Amino acid sequence: MGLFGKSFKEKVGDALQAVTNMNIGVRALDADIRGKVVTLKGVAESMDAKARAMEEFNNLVKTENTVNTIRVDKPEPAPEPVAEAAPAEQVYEVVSGDTLGAISQKFYGKASLYMKIFEANRDILDDPNLIKVGQKLKIPALEE
Fold first, then answer.
1. Could you read off the pLDDT of 1-28 as tens digits, one per residue?
2. How far apart are CA 43 and CA 88, in angstroms?
3. Distance CA 29, CA 50 (A)
4. Does domain 8-72 have CATH number 3.30.1340?
5. Which of 40, 46, 2, 1 is nearest to 24 (CA)?
6. Within a 13 Å sphere around the CA of 51, how many CA atoms are in the beta-carbon half?
7. What does the pLDDT look like over 118-140, one tens digit per residue?
8. pTM (2 decimals)?
9. For 89-140, which CATH class?
10. What are the extents of the domains in the chain?
């Protein structure tokens, strides 16, 4: 303790201890001191905890500038939901009035994807404009 009370370094240390004791979600709280500029370090559980630690620190110690380099822990990402496997291929029987474009619209939501159905059925189709009632067409799944 100096002649006029605690040193700046001691005030910073006391403030760090007080903020740590508040249990606001910051661990390993520490500081680098350069003159009257303080750089806070540590690990926070959230951005709110990081901001609150700096706010509480600044309420306890008057600095020329306080730099907040407290790192926020990244929470473990939630596991990806397991999607049900879509059938790789369906079969559709052509009815009167069908076109590959209409069938594509029905299965894919886009008539413009008719060539995907044509390509999957090259073994029975020679022309995408010539399909016959009763033909059983393979409808391949769309790749994502």
1. 555 688 999 999 999 999 999 999 999 9
2. 47
3. 10
4. yes
5. 46
6. 3
7. 999 999 999 999 999 999 999 99
8. 0.50
9. alpha beta
10. 8-72, 89-140
